[in-house]
């Protein structure tokens, strides 16, 4: 238990920087093919606040692709996300993970991924979590 708390503390420290240490290409490509296997590893960073099947700091993620934003009934969302009118698909998730506050001003998620390939990889992983 103590060990778990330490791990969370470390994750929060990393998250405070707001970005992954991106090792990928700097080229901005419009549409990228995501690698779900890499996405599963990248998803570990999300797990500081999210899990697939339980609400945590963030809402549970299973089935998120295709779902209306802010629609997990037993999670307490920001008003901004609940009234955003968004549906989560590849395009909206890409914009969300690029900068949640730019897409939904007033959201309480601040984590972002600066690398487009890494965003595509995480989204490919989420798509499989039905
Ligand atoms: C530091 C905590 C934190 C981290 C790390 C984090 N999130 Fe979030 N996330 C949140 C919070 C809090 C919300 C709720 C936002 C709101 O209500 O405005 C959220 C909401 C979301 C939503 C909206 C879900 C819905 O039901 O509408 C998605 C999608 C999401 N996060 C994806 C991710 C992904 C993918 C990652 C990893 C790349 C990630 N988040 C990392 C805290 C986090």
How much of the polypeptide forms β-strand, as a percent range?
A: under 5%
| Gap from first CA to last CA | 29 Å
Strand runs, count = 0
How many DSSP helices? Answer: 6
Structural class: mainly alpha
Instruction: Report Rg.
Output: 14 Å
What's the domain count? 1
What is the second-level CATH architecture? Orthogonal Bundle
Q: Which overall shape is indicated by the principal axes computed on the Cα atoms?
A: globular
Report the order of strands and helices. HHHHHH
- Cofactors, ions, other ligands: heme C
Indicate the CATH class. Answer: Mainly Alpha
Oligomer: single chain
The major β-sheet equals: none
Description:
43% of the residues lie in helices and 0% in strands. By secondary structure, the protein is mostly helical. It has a single domain, classed as Cytochrome c-like domain (Cytochrome Bc1 Complex, Chain D, domain 2, Orthogonal Bundle). Helix 2 (36-46) packs across helix 6. The longest helix is centred in the first third of the chain and has 15 residues, at 2-16. The model is unreliable at 1-29 (pLDDT under 50). The site of heme C has 26 residues, from helix 2, helix 3 and helix 4. Residues 15, 45-46, 48-50, 57-59, 64, 69-70, 72, 77-78, 80-81, 88, 96-97, 107-109, 111, 113, 122 line the site of heme C.
Q: What's the topology here?
A:
Elements: H1 2-16, H2 36-46, H3 79-82, H4 90-98, H5 100-103, H6 116-128
The structure holds heme C (HEC).
Structural features:
130 residues; mainly alpha; Cytochrome Bc1 Complex, Chain D, domain 2; 6 helices; disordered N terminus; binds heme C
